[in-house]
Fold this sequence. Notes:
This protein folds into 3 domains: 4-108, Rossmann fold, CATH 3.40.50; 119-135 and 199-329, ATP-grasp fold, B domain (D-amino Acid Aminotransferase, Chain A, domain 1), CATH 3.30.470; 139-196, 2-Layer Sandwich (Dna Ligase, domain 1). The chain has 10 helices and 14 strands. The chain has helices at 16-32, 70-79, 96-104, 113-120, 122-131, 175-188, 231-235, 250-266, 301-307, 313-332, and strands at residues 4-10, 36-42, 48-52, 82-86, 139-143, 156-160, 170-172, 191-196, 200-209, 214-215, 219-223, 240-243, 271-280, 285-291. The strands form 3 sheets. Strands 9, 10, 11, 12, 13 and 14 form a 6-stranded antiparallel beta sheet that branches. Strands 3-2-1-4 form a 4-stranded mixed beta sheet, with helices on both faces. Strand 9 and strand 10 (214-215) form a beta hairpin. Helix 1 (16-32) crosses helix 10. Magnesium ion (MG) is lined by residues 276, 289. The site of magnesium ion has 2 residues, from loops.
Amino acid sequence: MPRRVAVIAGGRSSEHEISLASARSVADALAGAGFDVATIAIDRDGRWALGPARAELDRPKGEALALLPDRSVAETLGSVEVVFPVLHGPHGEDGTVQGLLELAGVPYVGAGVVASALCMDKDLFKSVLRDHGIPVTRNITLRAGDATANPFGYPVFVKPARLGSSVGISKAHDEAELTAAVALAFEHDEKVLVEEFVPGMEVELGVLGNRDPVASPPGEIVVANNEWYDYEAKYAEGEMDLVVPARISPEQTAHAQELAVRTFVATECEGMARVDMFVRDDGEVLVNELNTIPGFTATSVYAKLFAASGVTYPQLLERLIELALERHERRRGLRY
Ligand SMILES: Nc1ncnc2c1ncn2[C@@H]1O[C@H](COP(=O)(O)OP(=O)(O)OP(=O)(O)O)[C@@H](O)[C@H]1O
Ligand SMILES: [Mg+2]
């Protein structure tokens, strides 16, 4: 097992802070498991800084990063044995950083370039799933300049195509709210989804593996005070309860697990993913979205889902590193 790991964290997206929290957990657990950990922090302006262990992650807000010439980032990437990108959203979870790591020729944890970009884009993601016969929530897609439309009635969900943590997402209850919701979503992306409202239970499943992935038990998201699983419900203390396993029938559980694995395979994910679904009041299971780099603290949903099947957080990290190396080895033999 290689021992030199670089954790990349922060980044330019609105999920910067979430990424730092995940990366602190990952770096601590890897160090605890005997890995030699370097961190690469990307600030909000996209500047990269290097540091040992957690130094760059704990830098006080506003304090300048120890900037290094681009070349030293490349050198560090070249000197570690595996990279663990713990970045959420655009410029990190969307294939851009993965592309850089491919160019650097270094093994890295998680989905590759295409799967990352595909799953970041809720519109393209659903096209691929529909092509594989996997049921998804219905939507229409608006591009900048398009007239606002809503064939679904109210309420309806409005989302930027490529973001996460519920940033820029609204539940619109009438036409006035729809107009405001579309304007807000367009502040975050050039492409916006208007999506039918799905009444029912929200469940999330973890998937782990490369060619032969396994799904965790489904976890049920129970939101305490908010109307839906918005940013506050996701990150404010005590606003969300994860019930594992979800209170659905054994048949629905097996079906959700099968859909999670099929979604992972159809989108050509590798390593890890968290697949978010709805179990409708009428029993139908629909895939909502897939996150290739889900929140990754030891108490995040992904870790809790696997903990429920007996996989500890350090074991999860070691497995992900193994999977990164396995892919790298497998692809090294290709001729192109
Ligand atoms: N079609 C829908 N019907 C009902 N609720 C929805 C629908 N779409 C989204 N939601 C609610 O909004 C939340 C956020 O939506 P979604 O998971 O698509 O966004 P995200 O920002 O990519 O989330 P994540 O933080 O998981 O990346 C969902 O967890 C759910 O509570
Ligand atoms: Mg989600």
